[in-house]
Amino acid sequence: MVGIDPGLVATGYGCLERTPSGVAVMDVGVISTPPGELIEIRLSAIHQAVGALLEKHAPSLLAVEDLYTEYRFPRTAILMGHARGVICLAAAQRGITVLAVAPAEVKRMITANGAASKLQVQRGVQAMLGLGELPRPSHVADALSLALTGMSRVSGRVQ
Asked: How many domains is the chain built from?
């Protein structure tokens, strides 16, 4: 299972795998693009990096954050939508099913609070995966929380 937290500046990813002893973290990271670069160059870089990630791990399912917007920041949703689009395209090109998950659903799954803070999500992911440290940056924690939520939604359980 791969979880991806889409963003134009920073796209977080987390790859999880079920093992006999639970869920193991296989890979995490952030795909970054420079803010001053042309949008088409940035989107191409995200598409290529996600494609390479999907080739490396060959997941059957990719959980990605669903689009949302705050009325005060509509541009953020538009830019996130661009990044999300190339992520979905990379998955479709490889026959990988995409599961869109609302941010509030992820927060409820990880913390039992649909309005949880970034730190609460980081702590919840740390506890669920038995990590020695908080997953950082928050984009990685968000990606891991998406993967955990995707696993739970598909199988009804995480562990």
From this structure: 1
Q: Are strands 61-65 and 97-101 parallel, antiparallel or unpaired?
A: parallel
CB 141 within 8 A of CB 122: yes
What are the tens digits of pLDDT across the range 58-74?
999 999 998 776 667 67
Domain interval for residue 10: 2-155
> Which CATH number do you get for residue 108?
3.30.420.10
Buried b (16+ CB within 10 A) or exposed e, 2-40: bbbbbbbebbbbbbbeeeeeebebbebbbbbbeeeeeee
Peptide bond into 35 cis (omega under 30): no
**pLDDT higher than threshold 80 for residue 5:** yes
Structure tokens at 16: 């999880």
Question: What length is written for the chain?
Answer: 159
Q: Count CB-CB contacts under 10 A for residue 136.
A: 11
